[in-house]
């Protein structure tokens, strides 16, 4: 990917690293010279991936991590510190959007589950790494958003709400940490060909490959922009600023078409 030696001597913790964008991001950081903790719930799935990725002097570790558990999060951070001695970067990639479905047809727990992973899971991870980053006087935290954080999509009400919360929290946290040496970024991937992404049959001209998206994320780490939106979704955000009603119509068409494709009907309809 062309990142050789850009991340020498840095230690990065990547959650959700067993597949998709998380896996490709961890591999790209490793290729750039970083020492990388591949973290996910299934350490058995991680171990062969780490063994295949680690080469030469580059170092990687497989770390079990459930971001919904305080004990698991603190255990994962301790494992990274025991292995590498520091944490220079955290990428909160864990989570997915679930299925495209109407909010009133989903389980009553669906909204809470989206927040448990995307919002409270990311918050739990940041709480766990901040003491180390403060002692170091440096660190980078990357939280993951989506275009639906700014322009909500029918069929993804809970996911839209969770990602909107991530965006607001990240902006406030970035401001609070100004001057500490700790930077907070937001990265909003486009629609991507992951296991979760293919469950969203969106009427879009392109679905991006995880390797390309991971490359954009790692490139963004070399810049200072607080927000990176690759793949064309930035135009939707500009439209939302110029004409919120028009942006909503565009996203409503996308969402309702996806709902039709999965055969979703309003609750109570046959």
Alpha carbon gyration radius: 18 Å
Number of domains: 1
Low-confidence stretches: none
Helix content: 40-55%
CATH superfamily: NAD(P)-binding Rossmann-like Domain
Mean pLDDT: 93
Between the first and last Cα atoms, what is the distance in angstroms? 50 Å
**Total count of helical runs of at least 4 residues:** 8
SSE string: EHEHEHEHEHEHEHH
Instruction: Give the strand tally.
Output: 7
Q: Provide the CATH architecture.
A: 3-Layer(aba) Sandwich
Q: What is the overall silhouette?
A: globular
| Sheet/helix structural class | alpha/beta
The CATH topology, please?
A: Rossmann fold
Major β-sheet profile: 7 strands, parallel
CATH class category name? Alpha Beta
Strand order of the largest sheet: 3-2-1-4-5-6-7
What fraction strand?
A: 5-15%
Structure description:
The protein has 270 residues and is α/β, with parallel strands linked by helices. It has one domain: 3-Layer(aba) Sandwich (Rossmann fold). The protein is 46% helix and 12% strand. It is built from eight helices and seven strands. A seven-stranded parallel beta sheet has the order 3-2-1-4-5-6-7, with helices on both faces. It is globular. The model has no long low-confidence stretch (mean pLDDT 93).
């Amino acid at each position: 990917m062309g990142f050789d030696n850009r991340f020498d001597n840095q230690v990065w913790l990547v959650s959700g690293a067993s597949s998709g964008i998380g896996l490709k991001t961890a591999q790209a950081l490793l290729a750039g010279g970083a020492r990388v903790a591949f973290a996910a719930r299934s350490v058995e799935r991680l171990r062969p991936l780490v063994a295949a990725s680690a080469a030469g002097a580059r170092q990687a570790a497989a770390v079990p991590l459930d971001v919904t558990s305080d004990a698991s999060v603190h255990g994962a951070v301790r494992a990274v510190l025991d292995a590498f001695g520091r944490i220079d970067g955290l990428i909160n990639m864990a989570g997915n959007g679930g299925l495209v479905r109407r909010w009133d047809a989903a389980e009553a727990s669906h909204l809470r589950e989206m927040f448990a992973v995307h919002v409270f899971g990311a918050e739990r991870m940041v709480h766990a790494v901040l003491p180390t980053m403060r002692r170091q006087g440096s660190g980078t935290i990357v939280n993951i958003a989506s275009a639906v954080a700014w322009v909500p999509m029918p069929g993804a009400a809970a996911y839209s709400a969770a990602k909107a919360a991530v965006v607001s929290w990240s902006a406030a946290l970035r401001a609070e940490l100004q001057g500490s040496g700790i930077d907070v970024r937001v990265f909003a991937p486009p629609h991507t060909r992951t296991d979760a992404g293919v469950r969203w049959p969106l009427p879009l001209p392109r679905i991006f490959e995880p390797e390309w998206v991971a490359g954009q994320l790692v490139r963004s780490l070399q810049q200072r922009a607080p927000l990176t939106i690759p793949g064309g979704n930035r135009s939707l955000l500009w439209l939302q600023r110029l004409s919120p009603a028009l942006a909503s119509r565009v996203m409503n068409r996308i969402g309702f078409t996806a709902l039709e494709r999965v055969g979703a009907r309003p609750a109570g309809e046959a």
